[in-house]
Amino acid sequence: MTEPILYARNLVKRYGKVTALDHCDFDLMPGEILAVIGDNGAGKSSLIKALSGAVQPDEGEITLEGQKVQFGSPIDARAHGIECVYQTLAMSPALSIADNMFMGRELRKPGIMGQWFRQLDRPRMEAFARAKLNELGLMTIQNINQAVETLSGGQRQGVAVARAAAFGSKVVILDEPTAALGVKESRKVLELIRDVRSRGIPIILISHNMPHVFEVADRIHIHRLGRRLAVIRPNDYSMSDAVAFMTGAKVPEEVAA
Amino acid sequence: MTDNTKPATGFEEGLKGASETVAEFREEKSLVKKIQHWLHQTPSAVPMIVLVVSVIVFALLSDNFFRATTMSTILQQIAIVGIIGCAQTIVILTAGIDLSVGAIAVFSSVLMGQLTFRFGIPAPLAIVIGLALGTAMGALNGYLISRLKLPPFIVTLGTWQIFLSSNYIFSKNETIRSQDIAEAAPALQFWGNAIQPGGVKVLYAVFLLIVLVAVMAYVLRHTAWGRHVYAVGDDAEAAKLAGVQTNKILLQVYALAGLFCAIAGWVMIGRFGSVSPTASTGVLGNIQSITAVVIGGISLFGGRGSIVGMFFGALIVGVFEMGLRLVGTDPQWTFFLIGVLIIFAVAVDQWIRKVSS
């Protein structure tokens, strides 16, 4: 059996009297799409935040490619090759697509202009951004210098996914990527997700949309009451089973046994 | 990639036959839409047009207006407001505001003067200390805003009073006379020197303003730091998640604004000759600089506009003041028209923002 690329054991996160993560385990296999589902307040966000460095767990450990890691901030996690597409997308609307893709890791011109005058290497950044968007089939974006606010919701999501895929060398985390999108745009984003996986990058997909989860996920991590209830394969269960598990109406056989 | 596509439900079957394109750009632009888009990408265009039109109008109304001497006088008069405007621009781009700019400028000029005359420190060293203290005052604003998370308006409303009263207390309300400075410490009046090509006097201060605007235009447009300033003003939370150290940027922006104000303080000595703790800049500098920034098309909500726009905004104010004086109207009309311009500028800003919806 292959080793998980990213796994966590016994994660605990408390906010005052509320225990958001209660000795939670987590496994992500190389090259898979792992969906994380759970009812509101089950602790999905806390789990994802712990994995992406946005919060620091009180107990437990996280292992990436066999190495124990501790993320002090999202920037830390990014340096380890874990990219997160937040529900809010984390983009600056008035800035261009290229500026947004390189926000916080800009390229500077070689030589004196870059070193002394710290000039950005716009041509290189634009070419890279265009190449990445093309790779993911976002050809409809004509002008890499247009402001992100002039894009549609689906295009913005596409740019955010492209940014994560371009820099996320090990893991890409997507938080509710289709929640704000229409049917057609959701379809496009699901295709993007598959595209990213076909490059061998494993994906963690947080979603409330059962049809989308069952369509693209290889395995489904069901989160309940701050811990992992079970991991199921979409072929073995129906969507209503999954909903029943996550709301506590039913208990999966492995857990019951 | 379509190998294992197994639509889980049938509801998307309804999409078959629907158009396959996802939100492509249709070029259905009317002329108005085109203008709106162009302005969206070129935020300093509106003030530039207003500037050109007002220069033409005043040139037609008054024979004396369109002359090199008049133009150089206008530039001379906006030098201080323009430099303080550079400070205000970077602060407002981060969606902040700095009400203490004028107070920092006056206090810095007083510090430079008093260090030289009361404490006998050589003028060049006193200038360096004055610039450093101005930067420190800005950094104090930045610390309170970025670390203690206090609103910029409140912080700088407070420090404005603190710096201004410290300035009166420290200087004991004494003015250092122009002759004394010229005699003992001409370095303090450096920016008051001028070149006179063809008899037209152009102050060094004017060149300093132009160089500062040009340097900041480059920094804001072509460096990562400049892009981060815009990102912080645009959406601070998003910038943080994208990996920008927003607190550090804010602290640096307010500190740099303090440095610009201290430079403006040095320029004030050259411009007025004397060092006066009661210079009007201490009280009016903030409003004058905010006026230049707003007329220059920089959004008070942050993240939009360019420093070149602020330069045009300051010039518009200077052109109105000079033009109306030459035409011979009641000077109150200047403020009347500037008030109208401010409201016009904000209305245009709101309209341009709608380009996204």
UniProtKB/TrEMBL annotation, chain A:
Coiled coil: none annotated. The keyword ATP-binding applies. Keywords: ATP-binding, Nucleotide-binding. InterPro entries: AAA+_ATPase, ABC_carbohydrate_import_ATPase, ABC_transporter-like_ATP-bd, P-loop_NTPase. Residues 6-250 form the ABC transporter domain. GO terms for molecular function: ATP binding; ATP hydrolysis activity. This is Sugar ABC transporter ATP-binding protein. It comes from Paracoccus zhejiangensis.
